[in-house]
């Protein structure tokens, strides 16, 4: 939902005709408020996915009670926390819209340097640290489980069977490492330029037109995230292929085996 709403925010960027904002100063402030709240919720969802995978691998017996039951609560807290945090950070711009606009038709907000640093740690440093730590832990546990499986198979199976299991386990380990690398690298590439701009001055003035490139790059992270997670699942790729090639329109397509 958060990534989809980020896509809706792009309509406001598209409406910046020749750098001119047509919706007024109040809508400009509300646009930036929604921007921060929704993108922060999207990043928070990435962290929650990392927690979900960590519990599923490291403590699977507790997964139904610890994650399944608490997923809605954690998702709601993510949205509420994002709204409260960024509402406080941008309340001055909402109360006095247009106070930093230098001319008619400009959409800009000012972010206090201290608030910018706090936002930097909340939506960039913190999520990256949590994601890396949890995925490294998941990778370590998966590798230890793979070694245990290999040792048991090696004791009971023939040499050919030992070789086939080794290949399968190595592929699983590489897939986990590849997922971690792609998620973190894309996150860094999409968000680094934005924070370089907003933290470059004592009080950063962020304009929807002059900062359009870094803002769109920031949004791009929410576009890529669903693809990173979804396309690592073979069944999802098969379903997408069926839709794109119109096989889904053929009789009996609902009975196709995609698992």
From TrEMBL:
Where found, per UniProt? Cell membrane
**Which residues does the UniProt record annotate as the domain G-protein coupled receptors family 1 profile?**
1-229
* The keyword Membrane belongs to this UniProt entry's keyword annotation: yes
The record's annotation in PROSITE patterns points to: G_PROTEIN_RECEP_F1_1, G_PROTEIN_RECEP_F1_2
**Record-stated family:** Belongs to the G-protein coupled receptor 1 family.
User: Where are the membrane-spanning stretches?
Assistant: 6-23, 30-51, 120-142, 180-200, 212-232
Keyword Cell inner membrane listed? The answer is: no
Source organism: Salarias fasciatus (Jewelled blenny)
This protein's UniProt keywords: Cell membrane, G-protein coupled receptor, Membrane, Receptor, Transducer, Transmembrane, Transmembrane helix
Q: How does it sit in the bilayer?
A: Multi-pass membrane protein
GO terms assigned for molecular function:
trace-amine receptor activity
Family matches, as InterPro entries: GPCR_Rhodpsn (IPR000276), GPCR_Rhodpsn_7TM (IPR017452), TAAR (IPR050569)
Taxon lineage = Eukaryota, Metazoa, Chordata, Craniata, Vertebrata
Can you name this protein? G-protein coupled receptors family 1 profile domain-containing protein
